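User: Teach me something about this protein's shape.
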Amino acid sequence: MNVPDLTRLHHLASALPAAEQAMLLAFAEFLHARTAAAVPCPAPSPTPLAIPRPAQESVVKAIKRLSQTYPMLDKSALLNEASQLLSQHVLQGRSASDVIDELEVLFQRRYELFIQAD
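Assistant: First, the predicted structure itself:
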């Protein structure tokens, strides 16, 4: 990204309310994780990794953990639903625990579809 674009992004982000700034940052981190996952690497194992859910976890960290737990899933296919859930937490005040529970179900459901398609 060139300097004028970075300056514009910084200006736009700093004009947002705190909750929307957090959402913008979470979205950028999600896109970064998705892009990093797009780099060619050995085929991921079809078995989810055993990464336990911590007692205290933010929604963004849960998305990262679930992305690591299910490396075989196409992150771009999960983007819409995961960002909707993140929005419900950040903008509508839905509890992080409830959103993370639903994210776990979302990733598990996508994994089951992945296994069926294989």
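Now, about its shape. DSSP finds five helices and no strands in the chain. The first helix runs from residue 3 to 14. If you'd like, I can walk through any region in more detail.
User: That's plenty for now, thanks!
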